[in-house]
Amino acid sequence: MGEFDQDTAVTPAGPFEYAATVTDRWNALGGRPNGGYLLGIALRALGTDMPLPDPISVTSYFLRPATVGPATIRTELTRAGRRIATGEATVAQNGTDIARVIASYADLEKLTGRTVLFNEPPALPAPEDCVDRADIGAPPPGVTIADRVQARFAEPPGWMVGKPAGLPRSEFWMRLADGAVADPVALAALVDTAPPATTDLGVMGSTTLELTVHLRGRPAPGWLACRVSTRHITGGLADEDFEIWDSTGRLVAQSRQLALLP
Amino acid sequence: MGEFDQDTAVTPAGPFEYAATVTDRWNALGGRPNGGYLLGIALRALGTDMPLPDPISVTSYFLRPATVGPATIRTELTRAGRRIATGEATVAQNGTDIARVIASYADLEKLTGRTVLFNEPPALPAPEDCVDRADIGAPPPGVTIADRVQARFAEPPGWMVGKPAGLPRSEFWMRLADGAVADPVALAALVDTAPPATTDLGVMGSTTLELTVHLRGRPAPGWLACRVSTRHITGGLADEDFEIWDSTGRLVAQSRQLALLP
User: Fold this and answer.
1) d(Cα A253, Cα A243) in Å, to the nearest integer?
2) DSSP state of A38
3) Chain A residues within an 8 Å CB radius of B119
4) Confidence band of B86 (pLDDT split at 50, 70, 90)
5) What are the residue ranges of helices labelled H in A157-262?
6) Chain A residues inside the 8 Å CB shell of B116
7) Which among A69, A243, A256, B156 has the fewest CB atoms less than 10 Å away?
8) What percent of chain A clears pLDDT 90, i.e. is strictly above it?
9) Burial level of A64, CB count in 10 A (0-12/13-18/19+)?
10) Do B64 and A78 touch (CB under 8 A)?
11) Structure confidence by residue, pLDDT tens digits, A90-129
12) Between A and B, how many CB-CB pairs are < 8 A?
């Protein structure tokens, strides 16, 4: 079992209730558990109660910062359709709600309608010809997620080499560091695991208010080609769009989040 | 009081419960009430219980098609922070849930952090130099929303003049037809009121599964400059991105939805 599956595992604690442990192995800046990781835990619980296998649209509103330690997840099956089912999960720690998740599920293999793309996967050199984030420099202290998720760049963003260039967009390879193949639940987490695109504006960190991920396919094994960008910052509110394409050039996940800059 | 405010009005029906009437004046293709209009009703109810004035992020999962007639809205104040509050609303008709909404609220006037844009408002000729949708042709029978929302094009999309060009993107002016200034709640509806961008692929209509709107400002009076595009269709699932810029060139709303094509 891979690290992600292990660290997002849930155990039944009653009808529509689950227990989980938020580990210290997916911490972002400030030693805070990553929001995508928390979403992964919520989806593991919710998936147990859903009559269809794959999340296809997932939304999380982050209410309070998560902490390392025990968590409980309450789930609700909101609507069970034949092709699409929708449910809700609430993650709580110490009796307080910290995230509210809604998600729709389907069977991705049975979505056989038309496919038309007006976009291309990132044009990146082979992963072996790219530079690994770990070889550029050590992550800030406590950012343990850097040990769980591997990233490789053709050209690292300016801030990563000490020269923020004011360009909040980047393309790179990513994978779970233990080599596990990401399933749609892991993809929903991965879209939130890279440092914010706004870091290149000289802004350290951000607080995700809302994150929606659309899952389009179960990825083939191998590195995932990613594209991230922030296009609109107003009054300290920043969007961040993220795409993940699998090693065969297929779009497998797409997300947008709204984050509050410090 | 404008048509939108009138047709989204709610009356208290108990603690955290409201009654509303889904009118037949905002019907889309197939005579179905528009999803954005339904979201407007949900937000009118939710806004009543929120301690802050403006929705800044709004997500709706559409569970079943709405019908013209009475509706009830149950609300929940999920988290009341000093700067940001989050709540939830469930719209039901005939005892069955038809939409589940989560939204975060703030005071848009008090969000004074940095503003940086990597995008431009649509470059459109003045509205008086554009062609009005109503002058291009009559909407399909029963599409009453065309009487509530006015649109003007420098160049109408191909499908609108009988020549679908396979280009699911467009820029145009839009406003509430009665001239009312759209508030953030109306903006959250307006992003869903144009015909789907995929119509230009020869596809009539689509079913919105999930819609998230980020509200960035209270618009100035006047026409709203809009940009819509679909970039990824896989297995019959299509995204649609929508931007609304006000008459002073300020981004006021941005949305993405996931829709199932017929």
Assistant:
1) 6
2) H
3) 231-232
4) very high
5) 184-190
6) 201, 233
7) A69
8) 96
9) middle
10) no
11) 999 999 999 999 999 999 999 999 999 999 999 999 999 9
12) 160
**Amino acid identity, position B154:** A
Q: Is the Cβ pair A78, B88 closer than 8 Å?
A: no
> Tokens for A195?
């440092």
Nearest to B251 by CA among B222, B223, B230, B225: B225
Kindly report, residue by residue over B196-205, the tens digit of the pLDDT.
Answer: 999 999 999 9
Query: Taking the model in full, what pTM does it have?
Result: 0.98
Q: What is the pLDDT of residue B30?
A: 87
Q: What is the pLDDT of residues B94-118, one digit of tens each?
A: 999 999 999 999 999 999 999 999 9
Reading the block at residue A207, the tokens are 């607080």
Looking at chain A, which residue has its C-alpha nearest residue B239? A214
Cβ(B210)–Cβ(B61) under 8 Å?
Answer: yes
Q: Which residues of A touch B104 (CB under 8 A)?
A: 61, 209-210
Of B78, B119, B230, the CB nearest to A231: B119
Which amino acid is present at B257? Q
Cα A21 to chain center, whole Å?
18
